[in-house]
């Protein structure tokens, strides 16, 4: 679970270089949603 989160963070850092904050927000929301659904 932690490795998936780290992978998402690396993706966020990649998008930050492109200054595309919308993709950062979307990837963050998707990762949180995935985390919540997997823990149920």
Major pleated sheet? none
Task: Briefly note the structural class of the backbone.
Answer: mainly alpha
Shape: flat
Low-confidence stretches: none
Q: Average pLDDT, to the nearest integer?
A: 73
What does this structure look like?
- The structure is a single chain.
- The chain has 2 helices and no strands.
- By secondary structure, it is mostly helical.
- It has one domain.
- The chain is flat and about 35 Å long.
Outline of the structure:
The chain is an all-alpha fold. It is 88% helix and 0% strand.
Key terms:
mainly alpha, 2 helices, 40 residues
Task: Give a topology summary.
Blueprint: H1 2-17, H2 21-39
Helix pairs in contact: 1-2
